[in-house]
Each structure stands twice: as C-alpha cells, then as structure tokens.
Design brief:
Elements lengths: L5 E3 L1 H9 L4 E7 L5 H13 L3 E4 L1 H8 L7 E5 L7 H9 L6 E6 L4 H13 L4 E5 L8 H6 L9 E4 L2 H9 L4 E5 L16 E6 L7 H6 L2 E3 L12 H18 L1
Parallel strand pairs: 2-3, 5-6, 5-9, 6-7, 8-9, 8-10
Antiparallel strand pairs: 1-4, 2-4
Helix pairs in contact: 1-2, 5-9
Length: 247
C-alpha cells in the first residue's frame, strides 16, 4: 500500500475525519494517551470507524519509519452509505426491496465476489459491521469487477440494530444457515427481504439467527459439508431473482 493511501499522525487523522474523509481503518499505538488521543477516540466512536491497537513496530512498518506520532490511518477506496438514507431511497423505488447483510465475512476476495454478485442480482444495498469484516480495499474492489462503486454499502456498529430497523418496516430477515430443516427454495422472496450470510468459519452469529424471520439452507448432495460463502450467496440471491422474474 502506497503512502498516498495513508495518513500519519493524530492531528492529521483528526482533521481528515472532521473534513469528511472516508477512512478504512485506523491503527493506534498501544497505551497512547493525551488530549489528541482522547479526541481521536471520540471521533472514531461517533463516526463508526474501524480501529485497532498495535505495537509501535507495526506503525513504523505502515509508515515506513516516517513520523507517525502514534497513529496511522488507511484511506478508504470507496464511500460508504448511510443506512437511513439507503432504506429511504430503496422504499422509493418501484421494486420489492432486497438487502444483503454480511456477518463478519473475513476474506477480501469473498467480499469482492459477493459484492459483484449482489450488484448483478439487483440487491439494493449491502450492510456490514464496522468491526470484524474484511476491508473493502483494492483487492476486494478488483474482485468485485468495480461493482463496489455501483452498489450502496453501509457500515453499522451492530448488525442486530440494522435488523431490528429493517424488521420495523416489514422486511423479512432470511438467514442462510445449515442449522435448519428448511431449504432456500421454500423461502418466499416475493416479499421485501434482507438476506444474511455468515462468516467463513463461524457462520451466522447465534443472536442474529434467533431474531431472523426464517432460516434456510442450501441442499448439499455430495460429501463436502459446506459451500464457499460467496458461492452460497450467489445461489441464494439467484433464487430470489428466479422467483421475482417468474412470479
């Protein structure tokens, strides 16, 4: 990653946030203190920016030993959408809403492939958690074939809150999981829908499964017990397309 995609220093990062710059992630030196550090933490919380505490050696490596003053930020390659605005814009369309929620997808290429499929299947917007998701970086954008610039993507602090917000306007939450006897072909996608896909290793968070309107699995007829998450997402989304184009 070139230095042109990074910002060094507490004050510089604070100014970038205040000016509306989209930041992918902020790396902060462990145990750093002071007025500027406190101000940065407040801005991170208020703006839902992903961050992590790292040793100084990590910052030295990211900055190539430039004067980072205890913090380095990666500039986001895309602009993220506001969830309220996404919902409002979607409801104004003359179509049945279709959202995609990604519960801590960790591989950037899976993320890119999912974004590409979502754009191709007419998904109105993708919702991801601020923490725990793969970054939508150059690799993800390349894998998406540029779709990351064409579909709204929202970051939220908690997917549960986004789900409650969607359910409040009668959007059904469908979680794709093997922990059910229902298969994806039994789901009625001719209703306003938000599809949930889980992480590569842990699947969908139990708390999300608990409040989902329905759970559905993909039939597996071979000996392998699961599909790649981007493939599974494609199968589920194209079932929605099939139902909506043949009803």
């Amino acid at each position: 990653m070139e230095n042109s995609t990074k910002i060094f220093g507490l004050r510089a990062i604070i100014e970038a946030i205040n000016s509306g710059e989209e930041l992918e992630k902020i790396y902060i030196q462990k145990e750093i203190q002071g007025i500027l550090a406190s101000e940065l933490h407040t801005l991170i919380k208020n703006n839902k920016i992903s961050f992590s505490y790292v040793p100084v050696e990590k910052l030295n490596n990211l900055s190539k030993n430039q004067n980072h003053q205890g913090a380095v930020a990666k500039i986001s390659s895309i602009s993220f959408s506001d969830l309220d605005i996404l919902i409002e814009n979607t409801l104004e369309k003359d179509k049945i809403p279709l959202f995609l929620l990604l519960d801590q997808i960790s591989d950037v290429r899976n993320m890119g492939a999912i974004i590409r499929t979502a754009e191709c299947t007419g998904v109105d917007g993708i919702i991801i958690p601020t923490h725990g998701s793969a970054p939508i970086n150059a690799d993800a954008i390349k894998t998406s074939a540029g779709a990351a610039f064409k579909i709204p993507i929202c970051k939220v602090n908690h997917l549960l809150d986004a789900i409650y917000q969607l359910q409040a306007i009668d959007i059904q939450i469908i979680s794709v999981t093997e922990k059910t006897n229902n298969n994806i072909y039994q789901v009625d996608f001719n209703k306003p829908t938000a599809l949930v896909m889980g992480s590569e290793h842990k699947g969908i968070t139990p708390s999300i499964l608990k409040i989902s309107n329905e759970k559905a699995k993909l039939p597996l007829l071979g000996e392998i017990e699961s599909l790649n998450v981007s493939v599974a997402c494609g199968v589920a989304l194209y079932e929605a397309v099939r139902q909506r184009t043949t009803s």
